[in-house]
Amino acid sequence: MMSEETIFSKIIRHEIPSDIVFQDETVTAFRDISPQAPTHILIIPNKLIPTLNQVTPEDEAVLGHMVTVAAKIAKQEGIAESGYRLIMNCNKDAGQDVFHIHMHLLGGKNLGKLVH
Ligand code: 5GP
Prior knowledge:
- This protein is α+β, with helices and mostly antiparallel strands.
- It has helices spanning 7-12, 60-76, 91-94; strands at residues 20-23, 27-31, 39-45, 84-87, 103-107.
- Guanosine-5'-monophosphate binds at residues 7, 18, 30-34, 42, 89, 95-98.
């Protein structure tokens, strides 16, 4: 299992440019470089967890904080009432490309139904 740092660790440490919209000691949120919706922000833990399969009970507060931060950003972006979607992809079948867990916050348009 890969557990090396990814580009996201460099973003957390401000070593490469990114549009960070929120950061605290636990999480970092920044705009996706290839937005799939008018609002497309990634919320990531500052701690490196490669995939959801490596999440442990110790990480529950961090994962919960990611959701709280996502909801706060959705409000700031003005999409809280119109609606938004949070997505986390795990491994190949979900198309995970960066092995540092991240929550996609998507909104600002009708996203269609993902699950019928
Ligand atoms: P995944 O497919 O792993 O769920 O999502 C990875 C996301 O990270 C993609 O939406 C991709 O556009 C985004 N991404 C990859 N590299 C960078 C980068 O260097 N900067 C930013 N801001 N986003 C990135």
